[in-house]
Structures are given as structure tokens and as C-alpha cells.
What we know:
Layout: E1 16-20, H1 28-35, E2 39-44, H2 64-70, E3 74-77, H3 83-95, E4 98-101, H4 107-110, H5 115-121, E5 126-131, H6 146-153, H7 155-158, H8 173-196, E6 200-205, H9 206-213, H10 215-224, E7 233-237, E8 242-249, E9 255-261, H11 263-273, H12 276-281, H13 294-308, H14 313-322, E10 326-329, H15 333-337, H16 340-344, E11 348-353, E12 358-363, H17 386-392, H18 397-405
Parallel strand pairs: 1-2, 1-4, 2-3, 4-5, 5-6
Antiparallel strand pairs: 7-8, 8-9, 9-10, 11-12
Helix pairs in contact: 1-8, 6-9, 8-9
Amino acid sequence: MPDDTTEPHGPLQGVKVVACSTAQAGTVPYMLMADLGAEVIKIEAPDGGDNSRGSTVLPGLPSTYFETNNRGVKSLTLNLKTQDGREILRKLVAQADIFGQNFRPGAAEKNGFGYDELRKVNPKLVYVSVSGYGPKGPHAALPGTDSMAQALGGIAQAYSTPGQNLRTGIVSVADETCAILAFGGALAALTHARTTGIGQKVDCSLLGGQIRLMGWTLTTAMWRNRDPVTGQARITGTQERPGLSASFNDRDGKPLVFQLSGARKWREAMEALGFYQSLEGAGFGDLGVIISSDDKRTTLLRMLDELFATGPREDWVDRLRAADIVAAPINTLLEAADDPDVLANGYVTEVDYPDYGKTLKVHGSPWHFSETPAHIGVAPKLAADNAEILGRLGYTATQIEDLRERKII
């Protein structure tokens, strides 16, 4: 389990963040910053806070959604519809390095904390805005969700099966991708602000993140003006230098994948598996023959289906890895959480939840810093940090109680 010390930690020590953000894409960038030592003040409505506090609450446990997306941050309740609430926000922004929001486009401006308003308070401010579609375009004013961005961004095709309808997935890849890009964009802008003294607005969107996630496969599709072949295998390259990434089931129905490029690697892989003689006899000693022939591609995949179904997955993966071929079992989510490499690297770790009397598995950090390690915290109770934060701004206990009675906090 990670050390629960409250001492400063992480490479972002000293960075101050104020986030008027909810949901996932709007909160994960700042949760990651908190992991790395930034002080993140999450602004929540006094009457219930972030709605996601009630999302996916399992019996006897906190919300998996809220905990995953808000660990390590501080909670300050503010009624931003009031002048006093907005004034407190401006005081926080004056001291902040980064401000984040993911309101529906136009809402922040309408309520007095758009970029043009807050840059007057703090010219060095990095202002991060997360939206569904991006700041321009015919649908810029519409709200967005993870499913919307998956639907528009092409990832449904990436995992599709020929002959079946395209479907979005159950993991929030659009939210997470956008969040990671917002994290990087904010820190890039912060570097510029600290060098020049000039802040700026950083716009990120769910849709933009999905387009970036499609990588070189999208470039190839655009240059060819043709959608890629999908399904069981990814066929790449040329007849002279073919590439293959393909999935198969073993004799017990357990799936695995391997990936290789080049004629030499193809032969080495098939020899390691004991398949080469059969494949060469059928005309597949050279993988390049499938590049321009759909029929040959289909025939080869069916042969490999039959061959892999003769043995256990563990043996196939071991043989391929011994031959220096990239191969892996295809994990379910629970299998991934228990994968030996995942655990060895701390990508999944454990955190104590004394309020619930449990130690629970959570995401670890995807980064390993040799000098300034990350620290995995827990999400705050609503308004847990009101007194501390307002006290630092100069409010007395009497004034804080008055703000509470007037429902400003």
C-alpha cells in the first residue's frame, strides 16, 4: 500500500489548481495533478456537491466513480450564483496557476468566470476548458458525453466485427483520453506562463481526443480514402514487408493476441508454434501473399484458428515470447487488475478507507518518478476543506459561519 504521509510529494509540488469541474473528463486532469503533488481545490455546490458523488455507490462503499476521478483533491463548497461566492472564487483564482471547468459552452461566461473575466484577475492564469465537440463548429454549443465522442470519433470501428453494427464501448475512453490531453495541455501552458508571465486558455474536447487517439490508422484511412479492414486481424504493410496483429482462441476458448512485422518474424513465430510446415504447405510460407488478397487472408486466419485451438493459451504465449515475438493473453478487466506486470509496477494498488473499514484496490499511478513519487489519496468529503481554504484567504471563523448560514458555502 502507498505511504499515507501528508508531506509534500510529487513533481507538481507548489502548483495550485482551482477546478469548477464535474463528471470524468473535467475532473481526471486535476486528480492526476493531485497524485503528483499539486494542491487541487474542487469547487462544489453547497446543496449536494458534484452529482457524481452518488454515481455507482456499491453497498458499504463510496462511489467508485467519484473516488476514481477525484482522489487527492480538496473540497470547497461555493454558491457561484451569488456575488459573494464569485468573489471568493476570484480570490482563489488570483493565487492559482491553473483553473479548470467543463460547463456547457457559454455557461462559465454567463456566470462571470469565463476566461476573459478571470484573466483580468490573474494574467498568468492557465484556463482549461473541456467541451464535447470543441469550441468551434456546428455543434459547439451542444453538451457532450463519452458515448457521443466514441460514436463520432471512429473508435467504434476500431473494435468492430464485420457484418455487425458499430457499437460504443463500456469503458469511458473518450473521457479518459480527453482528460489526459487536458492534463498535458495545462502543464504545457503552465510552462509557458512561468517562462513568459503570460497565461492562456486551453480548449480540449471529447471529440478532439478521440480523433487524436485514432493515430496513424486514421492517417492511413484518410490517405487511402478507404476504411481499414476490421475484425479478427489487423493487416498492415506491403507484400514485401507485411505486418499482422491477430487474435485467436485456444482449445478452451481463452483468447490471445500476437503481433509481428516482416517475413523473417513470420517464419520464426510459426516455427516456434509448430505451425510453419502446415502453413507453408498451404501456400502461406510467405505472409506477404495475404496483403492484396481477401480470400487468402480469410483462408490463413481460418487455418490459424484451427491450429491455435489445438493447445493451451499459456503454452502458445510462452512459445511466441521465447521466440521474441510480441504476444499476450487478452485479459478481462478483472484479469487485467490481477496481471503480474500491472501489480509489479503499481498500476493497480491498494488504499485504506478507514471510514468504511476496508482496504480497496484502486488505480495506481501510470508514472514512476525516481525523485518525486506520486501519492495516491482518497476523495474528500463534501465541504471537508472549507475552513482551511477560507481561513487562508483571511476569513475568520465567525465570517465562515456567516457564509454558511447565508448558504454561500
